[in-house]
Amino acid sequence: MVVLTGNSLTLEDIKRVVMEHESVTLCDIQRKKIELNRQTVEEMLNEKRVMYGINTGFGKFSDVLIEEDDLEELQLNLIHSHACGVGEPFDEKISKVMVLLRANALAQGYSGVRPELIQQLIDILNVGIAPVIPQQGSLGASGDLAPLSHLALVLLGEGEVFYQGKRMHTLDAFQQVGLIPISLKAKEGLALINGTQAMTAVGVITYLEMEKLLYQSELTAAMTMEGLHGIMDAFDADVHRVRGHQEQMEVAKRIREILRDSELTTAQGEMRVQDAYTIRCIPQVLGACWQTLHYAKEKLTIEINAVTDNPLIFSDDNKVISGGNFHGEPIAFTMDFLKLGIAETANISERRIERLVNPQLNDLPAFLSPKPGLESGAMIMQYSAASLVSENKTLAHPASVDSIPSSANQEDHVSMGTIAARHALSMLQNTRRVIAIELICAMQAVEYRGIEKMAEKTRLFYEKARYIVPSITKDRIFSIDIENLADWLKESQESDVTNLKGEVRVYE
Q: Which residues carry this modification: 2,3-didehydroalanine (Ser) (predicted)?
């Protein structure tokens, strides 16, 4: 059971809830603080205090006062008018993370909502309902207005959801699970949509998947080293110790551990004096990629426990303050930075693919083909990898350097953080396919070298991956291999590549 306090949620907690279906509950202490915070809002309304978004319009309409009898309609109109998302919906996991993060942010007790509203979010999560939320339409300030409005619709029994693998109207799902739509009170609509939970949810999923993929890229690179008789001296601990980057030292240590019993790697001067950079500099490059991931973890951990609402209600001091915590710049920068690590993981992998298939760079059969000339082997797999890497380079352009004014120039600087996060996730998916292609080529290469000479860890990786993709004995439709292996890498538990999950397409 994950208990929401508003300030103690971890990335591991999110994984347990969204991927392992652990239940969520609201902390009793926080429930009391939330009730007090709501009471403060009610008292201020009775005092006729002017409060943005509570008894005024929104954005450029902030100077328009709203009559008391219209306050609930104001919140409903807000959700309906702001539900302008377009495009394909987010993956169900991302939608569920958004629900969890919104509940956690409101649980801090600075947003002036009722506990019932937060409980509705938790109930939706616990029964396995995921809102259908279009991916496009957010500027990343004032928060993720459009995506979160589609989330808010579900609380009201409107919009669409995913439930038990089917897309349906929200009321149909509610009837199946016994949930009842709620009505919004003053402030509650704004509290639901003023935040960074869309970009942060995409960022969290990207982080969790990238962490796993980096471990897998190291294991794949180690197998490539065996296929190319890579030189182990460049991974000596002293080499990396004297530079001092912790992540670089850790990558080198893991490669040494993976290949410690390999009979296929070589020593300096045994076959050649040194390897090309894509082999020799694996720790330096992937170590830097790990640095971008660690930075992302630090900032995401802060943001998943952040109050990103506006205005904020401080009950102890009887204050209502309009601020800008909804601005997504910290996450926009974070995701743009992480994109560099994702891009370079693919970039160096594609160059190793080239070294595996190019007969001018190795002594393996040309393009790893069983019958070079008659059969093309892995020739066009390298093309696909190159295409994915090039696409990543265009997506790596920082979204955060762009801004378009909105709401009649009242909201005149925005973060584009959700675009940055979406691009990072798209790049991750491209990179996973590049790693899959390298793994296919590396497996073929070690077969020529002798799999009985492989290290124990790479041999186990080879055997499990061979269950997904058979050896290349003749040309076939390699697209199926690439997608199968990429799916397997995605569904494997952490770096435990021995765990086979998901469906595998077979050859007819």
A: 142
